[in-house]
Amino acid sequence: MPTAPDDRPTPAAEASVWRAPGIPALLVMVAAGFAGYALLMPVAPMWAAQGGADATGVGLVTGVFMFATVAVQLSVPSLLRRLGWAFVLSAGLVLLGAPALLHLLSDALWFVLALAAVRGAGFAILTVAGSSAIAELIEPPRRGRAIGAFGLAIAAPQVLLLPLAPWAAEHLGYPVVFLAATAPVLGLVAAYRLGRRLDALPQHPELQHPDLHRGLRRFAGLAPPVVLLLGVTLAGGAMLTFVPQLTTDAVLAMAALLLLTGLAALTRWGAGHFADRYGPSGLLLPSVLSTVAGLSLCAWSAAGPGRAAALLIGMALIGLSYGALQNLTLGMAFAAVPRRDQVTASAAWNIGFDLGTGVGAVIVGAIATGTGFPIALLAAATISVLTVPMALLRPRSPAAS
Fold first, then answer.
1. How far, in Å, are 199, 209, 211, 214 from residue 206 at the CA level?
2. 3-state SS of the chain: helix, strand, coil percent to 5?
């Protein structure tokens, strides 16, 4: 007589993701890569501003970096198939980290934008290949926690370095920051080891020769997570770029950035545990509303002096949603497609992340140049409101591959 299915977690599902084969190397590689990213995210725009760039030009530094990232992300799945994980991962870290010192040659906007484009190509490889590696190394029952660990490796250098970077540039000097921003090259050994492990995994014919004639319908399930991600990363990209311009108080700017990055790290980790146990749906709408409220408070704080508390609370609210939606939407993207399309899901998610970050910086910078930051941030809040319908949808299961 058949027995009822056992819903208890299996030993494999309960095993720690931190010690899973390949995961330690992945976390070291990602932490090194994002250390360089975190240092230059606010400082490269400051360097351009020092060279005479206005708010539009300052926003373009982040925008060009992210648009270059998106352009290269489209080709990362093909590069992995043709050149292998070890080579592609190593090249990505070199492209991301090596150009940092070249900033010392000039603070002219065109030169800073050129370096941003090169670094964006490296960042594309790190983000798409890094998140794809999770799907290759970890089975679905533990994937939420693995995404959480991956998120901590991303968030930890941002929590420590992103708020500190503007202060360090002003008090220790730009050369110190640019030297430290070569940190991605320190992850080369870990990247090569991880790549060798991934190259040795059994290759699936459908991954090597994907069927391009089945149409795009099998990717329809990626729309909700990507749109939700666009809304929150637009907010994050704007605030990470412009907080140093919203206040003349360097300590306040550092505290605001620390709140955003610190709370994002906590919620990106915690949301993974929630998603593994209950699914992502319950946190989606509260996270979107947190983004809207945070942007609105930041807009109010920018409208007049003496509103430091509003800026801090707003950055905290954005941080809560910024971390949670990163975890939840990546899990949703992996769950929305069959196994053969996991790398494509990773590319789509990362394109949403980086496109939102770049568009947020460019739109807010352009609007702020003409009307000021309060109107610009309210415009960003309005865009976030438009993602609410996607938070109310329920995910569908992918077609069998």
1. 16, 5, 7, 12
2. 80, 0, 20
Would you state the pLDDT for residue 396? Answer: 57
The Cα–Cα gap between 234 and 210 comes to: 32
Cα 62 to Cα 37, 181, 184, 271, 277: the distances in Å are 11, 16, 18, 27, 36
Q: In one letter, which amino acid is 265?
A: A
* DSSP tag of 393: S
- Of 311, 172, 173, the closest CA to residue 249 belongs to 311
400: pLDDT confidence band, cut at 50, 70 and 90?
very low
Report angle CA 132, 138, 143 to the nearest 5 degrees: 85
Return d(Cα 109, Cα 57) in angstroms, integer.
7
- Residue 244 parent element (H or E): helix 223-246
Distance of CA 293 to the CA centre of its chain: 21
Tell me how far apart the alpha carbons of residues 338 and 37 are, in angstroms, rounded to a whole number. Answer: 31
Which of 136, 117, 294, 120 is closest to 200 using CA atoms? 136
Query: What is the gyration radius of the CA atoms in the chain, in angstroms?
Result: 20
Number of other residues whose CB lies within 10 A of the CB of residue 282: 11
> Could you read off the pLDDT of 103-154 as tens digits, one per residue?
999 989 999 999 999 999 999 999 888 888 887 777 766 767 777 778 788 8
Q: How many residues does the chain have?
A: 401
Reported as a pLDDT band with limits 50, 70 and 90, residue 383 is: very high
162 neighbors 42 (Cβ within 8 angstroms): yes
pLDDT tens-digit series, residues 339-357: 667 777 777 888 888 788 8
Cβ count within 10 A of residue 370: 10
Where would I find the beta strands (DSSP E) of 262-351?
Answer: none
> CA-to-CA distance for 370 and 394, rounded, in angstroms?
40
Is-above-0.90 flag for pTM?
A: no
Q: Do 287 and 325 form a contact (C-beta atoms < 8 A)?
A: yes
